[in-house]
Structures are given as structure tokens and as C-alpha cells.
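Attaching the record inline, Q. Sequence:
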Amino acid sequence: MAIDQTIIDKVLNILSEEVIPAEGCTEPVALAYVAARARRELGCDPERIDVFVSGNIIKNVKSVIVPNSGGRTGIEVAAAMGALAGDDSKGLLVIQGVTSEDLRRVDDFLAGNRIAVHHEPTDAKLYIRVEMSAGSGQVGVEVKHLHTNVTRITRNGKTVFSVPCFESDFRSAIDDRQLLSVRLIYDLAREIDIERIRPLFDRVISLNSAIAEEGLKERYGVNLGSYIIKNIEQGTYGNDRRNLCASFAAAGSDARMSGCPLPVMTTSGSGNQGMTASLPLIKYAELRGFDRERLGLSLI
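Structure, as predicted:
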């Protein structure tokens, strides 16, 4: 039975919301995004920044390398980079254009101890609020549940934007996911016009493959991807598709989590999930000689 066109359109909208480009680990980049958005609301560089985050954000941001930071880590670095050099219009590519001069300004700002980090007591796993001030001006920007889902903006103590968004009653601009089922996704993969998804999945293939290839160059992290390849070459591991696919996915994560500035296409807000869902299939299709059309349908 043919799927109703309205349902197809909704599923494609969900794909466009869930599969998006992001640079580096999504949590520090999300923090930079909120800081950049707050700076836009403030209208000038801040004199002080207060960062309020959930425990899960603290865990995920505290020690990871921030992309384009020259190896710098931490919540304060991400917030300062976003506030002083970020462009929130680029979403999770917010700090893509940071320069060496920008980093000198970031270091000067951090040296003045003008950023304070606070643990926000909230049930939301993803919660970021950045409050910043300059002179008599003060603004705050809050994000909940999704990395760029702005739910509240304040200016000089007054709320100027607010969207109800609670864990038990999650309402935002995103499409309703309740229509999804394994059956629907399977049927859609069999019926969809490949041209409707080609641009998105071509980008998944190109971006995620590029960072995996970069990770195989042994410049990042523990180099797990290249370690698997070496063991295959030495005969310790079997030279089979499973190990080759695992090495490709691991290499992408090696690079991304160690600050590689190449963007990846995320899945459900996670770059690692995006690579896990795509890179083994991309490598498998390459090894089997599948064309782009067959690979694109597999990625659904």
C-alpha cells in the first residue's frame, strides 16, 4: 500500500531536523552556540559570562577538545569562543571560522576569570543557559533537550521570548516523532523516490567519510581505527568486512572527539551516533561495490 504523501513529507522533515552538520563534539559546540546567540542579543562583547548547565553537559564538555581551539578543552573555552568569535546563524558550525587572533582574545578573556560555571538542578539531560552582561546590559539564552532548541531569552531581567518545553510535555517547533515505526521506515525505504533523499545522504556520505579518512592518518586520540587496520595487516585480526567497517567508524570518532575541525552529519543530536549509523554501511557498500542509490536507501 502506497504511503500517504503527507506522511512522507513529515518523515523527510524529521530527517532534516535530526541529520544535520556539526563540528566537533556536539555538547561544547552547543554551548558555543548558546553563547554566540546571547552575545547577539547583548549587542556587544560581554564583560562577564555565567554558564548554567545540567550534569550531563558538565560530563560531556569538561574534558573534550573544542574544535578550532588549538587543543583547548572545557566549558569556559567553549563559552568564550562562542561569545567572542561565534556565529550562531551557522548552527552547530558556530565556531567554524575562529582565527588565531580570536583565540588570543579568548585566552585574554579567560585569564580575567570572567566566566563562572554553575550546575543547574534540572531533570533535563541537555540544559544550557548562558547569562552575560556588559555595562548595564544583561541577557540570558536558554536551550533545552535539543542542541539549538532555544526555549527562553531574557533581557535586563525581562522575558522577551519563551516556548513551553518540559520533559513530560515536550513542545517545540520540531515535527512529531510519534508517527514513526519500524514498519513505516521499512516501507518508506522501499517506496521513496531516491532523488528526494539524495542531497541529504550524499552529504552524509561525503562529510562522514572525510572525517573517517582523516582519523586513519593517526593524528587523533588513541588511533583506534588505524590500530584495527594494523592488526588486520599483521594477521592478529581477520581481514573481513566487519573489522574493516569497525575501523572506519572508530577512525571517525577518533578524529571528532580529539578536536578535528571537519564537520559530521549527526543523528538525533549526536555526531558519534551519526557516524555509527552511517560509516559501517558506507564502508560495507564500498567493499561490496554498491552504487550510491543502494547505499542511500540503506542509510534510511
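Residues 167-173 have pLDDT under 50 and may be disordered. The longest strand covers residues 127-134.

More tomorrow.
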